[in-house]
């Protein structure tokens, strides 16, 4: 609360009292804190890979280059860290682009079943590497919705990639798609490491990760779910998550099948 005090003086200079103006700045402070936290987080996330790249490059230049095995090892670390940096910057730019509220959605009728199966196909290789079983919707059960293709693809891709990243070898991932009233629902569940109940409310925040080290190892930036939430809400949809530590996680996305025509410009 900001408080401003001023004396209340009559025309004849007689003091009659004090005027107090109370200004509730809770929201302003909250937004300011969010902004400074965000800048601090971005700086930290950028600094970590850059420090690593610089350190390994310096060591190579200082002589480690003459040992071929060390040279290879250091160069692969430099490559991996540069990749992470690239992904981080691309995701930050993407998030900032989709947050620009004046950009209308490019809505079109899309076959959601086909989209899910295509995306699953592109990451099948990752699932195979970990010997994961992928249960997918029936190809013959076409489910359509009105949405912006790229954004809907990104939602499915981020959730599926997380399911693969956070499920140990030999686990199972199940993708279901169904219609309910005027909504299309997508559920992605895994038999992975799960998320502790105390962390669940924060996982959609930018850069929030249950275990930073594990997320880093799997190439995570901590922005994937913030992007998913934003994209879902830009379609007037909702996302919910249920999880049990050590057992697995389920994300359910509910998207409206259609949008009112006059909604189209206000969405996003
Ligand atoms: P990241 O790039 O770290 O995966 P996300 O924003 O996609 O970032 O996810 C945030 C955090 O939520 C992850 O770091 C992880 O701790 C947790 N998480 C997301 N999906 C799952 C899942 N399917 N199983 C377990 N934990 C998950």
From TrEMBL:
**Keywords, alphabetical:** ATP-binding, Cell membrane, Kinase, Membrane, Nucleotide-binding, Phosphoprotein, Transferase, Transmembrane, Transmembrane helix, Two-component regulatory system
Tell me where it resides.
Cell membrane; Membrane raft
- Name all Histidine kinase domain ranges: 41-259
Q: Cell membrane: is it a keyword of this entry?
A: yes
The record's Gene Ontology cellular component field reads: membrane raft; plasma membrane
Gene Ontology MF terms: ATP binding; phosphoprotein phosphatase activity; phosphorelay sensor kinase activity
Gene Ontology process terms (BP): cellular response to phosphate starvation
Q: What is this protein called?
A: histidine kinase
């Amino acid at each position: 609360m900001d408080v401003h005090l001023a004396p209340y003086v009559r025309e004849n200079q007689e003091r009659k009292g004090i005027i107090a103006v109370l200004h509730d700045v809770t929201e302003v402070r909250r937004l300011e804190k969010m902004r400074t936290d965000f800048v601090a987080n971005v700086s930290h996330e950028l600094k970590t890979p850059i420090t690593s790249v610089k350190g390994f490059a310096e060591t190579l230049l200082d002589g480690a280059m003459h040992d071929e095995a060390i040279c290879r090892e250091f160069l692969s670390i430099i490559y991996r860290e540069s990749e992470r940096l690239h992904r981080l910057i691309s995701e930050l730019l993407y998030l900032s682009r989709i947050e620009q509220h004046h950009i209308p959605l490019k809505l079109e009728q899309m076959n959601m079943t086909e989209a899910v199966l295509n995306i699953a196909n592109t990451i099948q290789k990752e699932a195979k590497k970990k010997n994961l079983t992928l249960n997918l919707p029936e190809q013959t059960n076409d489910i359509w919705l009105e949405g912006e293709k790229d954004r809907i693809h990104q939602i499915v891709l981020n959730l599926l990639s997380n399911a693969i990243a956070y499920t140990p070898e030999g686990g199972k991932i199940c993708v279901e798609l169904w219609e309910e009233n005027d909504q299309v629902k997508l559920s992605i569940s895994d038999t992975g490491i799960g998320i502790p109940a105390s962390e669940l409310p924060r996982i959609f925040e930018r850069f929030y990760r249950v275990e930073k080290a594990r997320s880093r190892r799997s190439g995570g930036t901590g922005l994937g779910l913030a992007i998913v939430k934003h994209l879902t809400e830009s379609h007037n949809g909702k996302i919910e998550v249920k999880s049990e530590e050590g057992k697995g996680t389920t994300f359910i996305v509910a998207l409206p099948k259609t949008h009112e025509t006059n909604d189209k410009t206000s969405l996003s």
